[in-house]
Design brief:
Blueprint (H helix, E strand, L loop, with lengths): L15 H7 L2 H4 L3 H17 L5 H24 L10 H13 L12 H37 L4 E6 L2 E7 H26 L1 E2 L15 H7 L4 E2 L3 H6 L2 H28 L6 E2 L18 H25 L14 H23 L1 E2 L1 H9 L5 H10 L4 H17 L9 H8 L7 H7 L2 H7 L8 H16 L2
Parallel strand pairs: 3-4
Antiparallel strand pairs: 1-2, 5-6
Helix pairs in contact: 3-4, 3-6, 3-8, 4-5, 6-7, 6-12, 6-19, 7-10, 10-11, 10-12, 11-12, 14-15
The structure holds arginine.
The site of arginine (ARG) has 10 residues, from helix 6.
Length: 467
């Protein structure tokens, strides 16, 4: 049987299958270091408040540190028994008592597993969120560097996946930079609500012991202690919030992945992914598949799934603690693991891919991406834009019938199409309609023009320097 923290009021043993079903140790072992950290703060406070003697505190503290070292060693060596106890809290207390004797049982004075598990999860999530934020910043830096490198690499921009207007690869990458920056800020904001201490909330109604909740909150690096004991043990919206932000981040990476997959196809041929981040086919020898990007797109569903699962779990729960809440962990751990490995791999994939600038430029120069440019030119010459739109539509039809692009039309073509509206200098127009000129004329704030992209990149470099 697994070691438990209860049993006095029971006559029969728990069914073995029930024990298995009830256990959370196989996954909440992830919380081990945080559980011990929380216990160390709790016992220190019990001493300060004269609830435990100095000698007891010393003994328990020393015992907890030994338990931690032993568990770390067993986990590392791979000989840890995941069936040893009901959950991480029972495990640590049983190990402590084995180390220091019955006095170990004093650790749980004025505490419940309900506030304990909430503390553990918050310490864990604070730590993980900070790590994920660092990885996000690193990713943003890589994207910004790539954007700078490709600040002049023209490519087609798309709407409806149809060629729309020319822009640059750098500009396209900057769009993702800002999406990630918002995710970073969302994590930062979520931290404010993660970093609140429920310790001392007890089972649900606080404690009759003279606990100093502000002391343990401070000791554990929390911003403050929560103001309602029932809220403290029943709140999981800090987990939901994290999962919502993580889902949003994954959505961004999923969209980027979809584009990477398209660009890497023969049909686009805008990039070629490096061997290190692609895989082959067991039957088709020529294949080099973008599995990393596909897996990111696929795993996005899993992270969103974890968010949904926890929302469904919490939806009908009365206050305060219910065992349903044990279901808050696996999806969260899985999401944290997924997001972290992706944030490590993805920048490597981007750094090692080959950008086929010629193909991008060729695509940007064909398919009438400069039609809006021409309409704008006419509109700037006093032709109402709606009429200019109609005229340019006809010009596109004219050119496509001749299998030419707009900037390949000759003086006589322009005279024929536009003669009745405007005197055109074919040479001047050809220059205006070139891909580079078109991109650089789009110098509105946040536009793809070289100078504007440069301004934005410099500003963001500054943002990243103090991160
Ligand atoms: N393993 C439990 C969980 O993850 C710990 C809290 C148990 N509390 C209780 N009253 N049974 O939620």
């Amino acid at each position: 049987a697994k070691s438990k923290l209860w049993g006095g009021r029971f006559e029969a043993n728990t069914s073995e299958l029930m024990e298995q079903f009830n256990a959370s140790l196989p996954f909440d072992i992830n919380l081990m270091e945080y559980d011990i950290k929380g216990s160390l703060a709790h016992v220190k406070m019990l001493g300060k408040q004269n609830i435990l003697s100095e000698a007891e505190v010393e003994k328990i503290t020393e015992g907890l540190n030994r338990v931690k070292n032993n568990l770390e060693a067993e986990l590392k060596a791979g000989n840890f028994d995941f069936n040893e106890a009901e959950d991480i809290h029972s495990l640590v207390e049983a190990r402590l008592t084995a180390e220091i004797g019955e006095i170990g049982g004093k650790l749980h004075t004025g505490r419940s597993r309900n506030d304990q598990v909430a503390v553990d999860l918050r310490l864990y999530l604070r730590d993980q969120t900070e790590q994920i934020m660092d990885l996000t910043i690193n990713f943003m830096q890589i994207i910004l560097d790539l954007a700078e490198e490709h600040i002049k690499t023209v490519m087609p921009g798309y709407t409806h996946l149809q060629r729309a207007q020319a822009l640059t690869f750098g500009h396209h990458l900057l769009a993702y930079y800002f999406k990630l920056k918002r995710d970073y800020e969302r994590f930062q904001d979520a931290l404010k609500r993660i970093n609140v201490s429920p310790l001392g909330a007890g089972a649900l109604a606080g404690s009759s012991f003279n606990l100093d909740r502000d002391f343990t909150a401070k000791e554990l690096g929390f911003d403050r202690a929560c103001e309602n004991s029932m809220d403290g043990v029943s709140d999981r919206d800090f987990v939901l919030e994290f999962l919502a932000v993580a889902s949003n981040l994954m959505l961004h990476l999923s969209r980027l992945s979809e584009e990477i997959i398209l660009w890497n196809s023969k049909e686009f041929s805008f990039i070629e992914l490096a061997d290190q981040y692609t895989t082959g086919s067991s039957i088709m020898p020529q294949k080099k598949n973008p599995d990393l990007a596909e897996l990111v797109r696929g795993k996005t569903g899993r992270v969103i799934g974890s968010l949904n699962q926890l929302m469904y779990t919490i939806k009908g729960l009365p206050l305060a603690y219910n065992k349903d809440l044990q279901e808050d962990k696996e999806g969260l751990f899985d999401s944290v693991k997924t997001v972290k490995i992706i944030l490590e791999l993805y920048p490597e994939m981007l750094k090692t891919m080959t950008v086929k600038e010629k193909a991008m430029k060729k695509a940007a120069a064909t398919g009438f991406l400069n039609a809006t440019e021409l309409a704008d030119y006419l509109a700037a010459n006093e032709i109402p834009f709606r009429q200019a739109h109609q005229i340019v539509g006809e010009a596109v039809l004219f050119a496509s019938k001749k299998e030419k692009e707009l900037d390949q039309l000759q003086q006589q073509d322009w005279d024929e199409i536009l003669g009745e509206y405007l005197d055109i200098d074919a040479e001047e127009l050809k220059e205006k309609l070139s891909v580079e000129a078109a991109v650089n004329s789009h110098s509105t704030k946040g536009g793809p023009a070289f100078e504007e992209s440069k301004r934005v990149i410099n500003k963001e470099k500054e943002f990243l320097t103090d991160k």
